[in-house]
Amino acid sequence: MSASRARVEKSAKAFRSIGEAAAELGLETHVIRYWESKFTRDVRPVKRADGRRMFRPQDLEALRAIQILVHEKGLTLKGAKALLAEQGVPAVLAGEATLGAAAPSPARELQKSVAKAFEAEIEDTAETGSRERLEDALVGLTDLKARLDAVRQKRAA
């Protein structure tokens, strides 16, 4: 194909080569290949007999959603993968996906209870009530540490 030939506009339903997908999204081809390896559930291009990738419209939508989450919202790839699994590509593209929509984490709840205990300590002149709240917070922190250690050991194994 000569460089002087005008590019033909493809329909929205047409498959795209990796170069065309990269140009359309404003990404480098190696980034698309990497995302393809990390988001195997959402990005599954068809591979031709000669090994070239052909991206379907739903692959391009998934890549756009990943691009929004990673480049615009600042999520890590792991966070983007979790959010896509939770809420789906259409929700991200429509702007309806909410970050942190999952149930509050035990660590976040513990932070809140510790903050309340310290606020109460300042307001509370009776030392016994605030001491009990601090001891409860310490028990919670110790429990959380034990759970985190167990997860770390499980991942290491």
Please summarize the sheet with the most strands: 3 strands, antiparallel
- Cα-atom radius of gyration: 24 Å
Going across the biggest sheet, name each strand in turn: 1-3-2
As for the CATH topology of the largest domain, it is: Multidrug-efflux Transporter Regulator, Chain: A, Domain 2
Which structural class fits the helix and strand makeup? Answer: mainly alpha
Q: CA-to-CA gap between the ends?
A: 54 Å
Q: What's the helix-strand series?
A: EHHEEHHHHH
> What does the average pLDDT come to?
81
| Helix run count | 7
Unreliable residue stretches: none
Keywords for this entry:
7 helices, elongated, about 160 residues, mainly alpha, single chain, Multidrug-efflux Transporter Regulator, Chain: A, Domain 2, three-stranded antiparallel sheet, about 60% helix
Structure description:
The chain has seven helices and three strands, in the order E-H-H-E-E-H-H-H-H-H. It folds into two domains: 78 residues, Multidrug-efflux Transporter Regulator, Chain: A, Domain 2, CATH 1.10.1660.10; 51 residues. Helices cover 62% and strands 4% of the residues. Helix 3 packs across helix 4 and helix 6 packs antiparallel against helix 7. With 157 residues, the protein is mainly alpha-helical. The mean pLDDT is 81. It has a three-stranded antiparallel sheet with strand order 1-3-2.
Nutshell version of this structure?
This protein has 157 residues and is mainly alpha-helical.
Q: Secondary-structure blueprint of this entry?
A:
Layout lengths: L15 E2 H8 L3 H10 L7 E2 L5 E3 L1 H16 L4 H11 L1 H5 L12 H18 L3 H30 L1
Antiparallel strand pairs: 1-3, 2-3
